[in-house]
Amino acid sequence: MASRPKTLWAALSPVIIGTAMAYGADGFHLYSAIVALFGALMIQIGTNFANDYFDFKKGIDQKGRLGPTRVTQTGLVSPSTMKKAIVIAFCMASLAGIYLVWRGGLPIVVIGLLSILFGVLYTGGPYPLGYNGLGDIFVLIFFGPIAVGGTYYVQVLDISSESIIAGFAPGLFSVAILTVNNLRDIKSDTIAGKKTLQVRFGEEFSRFEYLFCILLSASVPVFLYYWEGTHPFSTISILIIPLALPSIRRVFILSSSPEFNDVLSVTGKLLLLYSILFSIGWML
Fold this sequence. Notes:
With 284 residues, the protein is mostly helical.
């Protein structure tokens, strides 16, 4: 429960896209792809564990919250056990990083250390990113260009501007997931003093942020095609827009409702579907 499995597509999808782009560049490397996927999942799980723990310690989680059960706040897991789980998850990610560093060198050291550091600082430390309106930027960068570009790099052993640009699509989708999460919790976060972007700018801003993220992410492959003139079939991923319309509609009509949990789950699945459509199209 604490790993928040419905959101883990945010870690899986960039690896799928980066691997497809490596395949398109004749640089596909199976072991690196598998290890990168494992490392990405461990970093996100560790971050989710840290979020569960630090929200409890800071008193953010209150009774009556609309989101999924927080295992530390409800007593299902003790704080000391959750701290151990955080350490174990990030250590597992570091073990994966050893192989990736051996293959990719210093850039992977930097990416790995920053990912773990900001995974903790998202809700921990003296200035938590997620509590001060910076969570959206962290998610966009680390679940977007860094994840896709890093996956591409450890396989091809080179970086391309295409992989960086393509990475903004899953990054924007992950921001959409975060937006739904924070829009659902906007009232409780306001009471707790958690100043997310959604708390700072309100529900109407949040709804349009969600819409913007979905539309812009679907437009990324179209931009890549017109910019490079290659991989035209990757633009099939724009079909995600009509599939996302029911979720967009619900975001615009719901207000502080537990139904946002369903929208969050569906958005994660849309991200996975987008990554599959893009990847198949890119490899054709």
